[in-house]
């Protein structure tokens, strides 16, 4: 394969070896001790950019360790890799594709060449087509087959064609217009029936999102919903109620969707990074072109920050380095994402796909199996709900679980009392995770409660918090389309940096193929009794289904 990205086993780099030694030297240092030994710790562990205040001081990492991580980034060729991505090189080598979702939101006016052609004019033309369509639907100028305006939108897609748009529509609920936007993804029939059961076909618009228009789950749902629609509407009405985001105009035309109502996608935009493209059509319908533009602009500003900022002040780079520190030196297997707003309750699920599908790889860019850990398990929920769910495990469990706390200074609806209580929890939890509660502190509390010395001895060990639980705090002024765009782009770039340091290809996803291939074989066994050879367990399951 042609070398486009740097290609070196990170464990062979000088910085890696130095980090291993530094870990051994500092692994027993507590967070309290780090703060005591570094009076000016906040000078290098707080990053301020636009509306973002990022505090990574509550990490089991000192200045020397941070400097070694920065050295690792340099030795890994990160600077050259960033340039390769933004210049349109085909850094997705195994699929022979460029990775240019950043072109969809670039704030720069300079030509962006891909295979000798400036891609920006075509992107602008497609975007204007999408905006004009959305304006027509939102204003009521677009009519259904009986002359009624559209009131409901159903997005039919899966993976990146569902998770991103669904998360953003939910996150920007405060900015939504009158349209009711819903999402169908799972091939499960019950799922799509529940979504459409109360819909009026006269006022519902269906958006089918599939690059190839062949994805089994999406096409199964689209065909079933089309049949439901035609039970109540004439065939020619399909064109007024179904639009597509796809490159396969032949198949969309066969479905009944006109070329005018088919919005193209670019081959160099991967699914899990596609919400910025026409895949975001449902987002644009939900919040309108103005707010969709705000989303793009926020991401574009983060792109510029990532490209231009020195690594020690570069938010995506710093967060990625910290993640590698825990994954590869502390052997932490997972990271929690805790957004302190209900609007972002599905951000952890969205980032699960983005991070785990991108960096869940065991083969390096050299084609050899890696001899170190890659990828992290991502999970989480919104605060304060999470505090009453899994925080027990983080506080007093046996696992080291670094966590990102994401909060907003201002409430969108302006309820000061509730926001102050929310922010109090947001800040207090990271302080509690860092400091914990010693046995002596517990004894003082129990003694003050009037508990007998005998009872204190029994209960005290269970009330101790060891602390030293690492967190990053991302405090943002308010949740706007602009700040949301920047936040999502931040995590996209964190994924990229991790992939470069781990010497893997982050933008392919061959791991999703095998199960889909076998599902087609198993489906023949279920539907047609094809009796393909399987292992004994699979044979028994098929028999149990057919009984």
Strand order of the biggest β-sheet: 1-2-13-12-10-11
* Low-confidence region ranges: none
Mean pLDDT: 96
Structural class call reads alpha/beta
Number of helices: 21
Please state the overall shape, judged from the principal axes of the Cα atoms: globular
What would you report as the Rg, rounded to the nearest angstrom? 26 Å
CATH architectural type of the largest domain: 3-Layer(aba) Sandwich
Portion of residues within helices: 40-55%
Largest sheet: 6 strands, mixed
State the CATH topology of the largest domain: Rossmann fold
Taken as a percent bin, the fraction of beta residues is 5-15%
Give a quick set of tags describing it:
13 strands; Rossmann fold; alpha/beta; 3 domains; 21 helices
Structural write-up:
- The chain is an alpha/beta fold.
- The chain is built from 21 helices and 13 strands.
- Helices cover 47% and strands 10% of the residues.
- The strands form three sheets. It has a six-stranded mixed sheet with strand order 1-2-13-12-10-11, sandwiched between helices. It has a five-stranded parallel sheet with strand order 6-5-7-8-9, with helices on both faces. It has a two-stranded antiparallel ribbon with strand order 3-4.
- Helix 14 packs parallel to helix 19.
- The longest helix is centred in the middle third of the chain and has 28 residues.
- It is globular and about 80 Å long.
- 43% of the residues are buried.
- The model has no long low-confidence stretch (mean pLDDT 96).
């Amino acid at each position: 394969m042609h070398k486009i990205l740097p290609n070196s086993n990170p464990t062979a780099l000088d910085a890696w070896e130095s980090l291993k030694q530094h870990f051994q030297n500092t692994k027993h240092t507590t967070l309290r001790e780090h703060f005591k030994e570094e009076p000016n710790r906040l000078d290098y562990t707080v990053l301020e950019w636009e509306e973002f205040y990022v505090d990574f001081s509550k990490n089991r990492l000192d200045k020397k360790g941070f400097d070694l991580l920065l050295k690792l980034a340099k030795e890994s060729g990160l600077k050259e890799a960033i340039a390769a991505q933004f210049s349109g090189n085909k850094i997705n080598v195994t699929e022979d594709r460029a990775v240019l979702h950043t072109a969809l939101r670039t704030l720069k006016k300079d030509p962006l060449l891909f295979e000798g052609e400036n891609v920006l004019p075509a992107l602008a033309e497609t975007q204007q087509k999408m905006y004009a369509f959305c304006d027509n639907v939102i204003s009521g100028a677009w009519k259904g087959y009986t002359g009624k305006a559209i009131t409901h939108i159903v997005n039919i897609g899966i993976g990146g064609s569902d998770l991103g748009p669904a998360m953003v529509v939910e996150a920007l609920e405060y900015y939504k217009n009158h349209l009711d936007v819903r999402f169908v993804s799972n091939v499960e029939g019950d799922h799509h029936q529940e979504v459409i059961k109360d819909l009026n076909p006269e006022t519902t618009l269906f958006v089918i999102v599939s690059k190839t228009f062949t994805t089994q789950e999406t096409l199964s749902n689209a065909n079933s919903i089309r049949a439901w629609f035609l039970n109540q509407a004439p065939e020619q009405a399909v064109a007024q109620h179904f639009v597509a985001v796809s490159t396969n105009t032949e198949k969309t035309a066969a479905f009944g969707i006109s070329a005018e109502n088919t919005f193209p996608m670019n081959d160099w935009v991967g699914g899990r990074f596609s919400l910025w493209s026409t895949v975001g059509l449902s987002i644009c319908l939900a919040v309108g072109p103005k707010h969709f533009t705000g989303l793009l602009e926020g991401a574009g500003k983060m792109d510029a920050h990532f490209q231009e900022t020195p690594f020690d002040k570069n938010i995506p780079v710093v967060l990625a380095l910290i993640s590698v520190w825990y994954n590869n030196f502390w052997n932490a297997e997972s990271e929690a994402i805790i957004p302190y707003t209900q609007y972002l309750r599905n951000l952890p699920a969205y980032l699960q796909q983005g991070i785990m599908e991108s960096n869940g790889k065991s083969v390096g860019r050299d084609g050899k199996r890696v001899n170190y850990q890659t990828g992290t398990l991502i999970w989480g929920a919104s605060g304060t709900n999470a505090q009453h769910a899994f925080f027990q495990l983080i506080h007093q469990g046996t696992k080291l679980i670094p966590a990102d706390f994401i909060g907003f200074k201002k409430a969108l609806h302006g309820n000061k009392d509730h926001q102050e209580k929310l922010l109090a929890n947001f800040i207090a939890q990271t302080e509690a995770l860092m400091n914990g509660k010693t046995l002596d502190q517990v004894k003082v509390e129990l003694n003050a409660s009037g508990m007998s010395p005998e009872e204190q001895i029994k209960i005290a060990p269970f009330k101790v918090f060891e602390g030293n639980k690492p967190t990053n705090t991302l405090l943002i002024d308010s949740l706007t389309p602009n700040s949301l765009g920047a936040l999502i782009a931040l995590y996209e770039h964190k994924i990229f940096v991790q992939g470069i340091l781990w010497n893997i290809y982050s933008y392919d996803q061959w791991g999703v193929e095998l199960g889909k291939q076998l599902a087609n074989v198993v489906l023949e066994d279920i539907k047609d009794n094809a009796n393909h050879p399987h292992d004994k367990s699979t044979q028994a399951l098929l028999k149990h289904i057919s009984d």
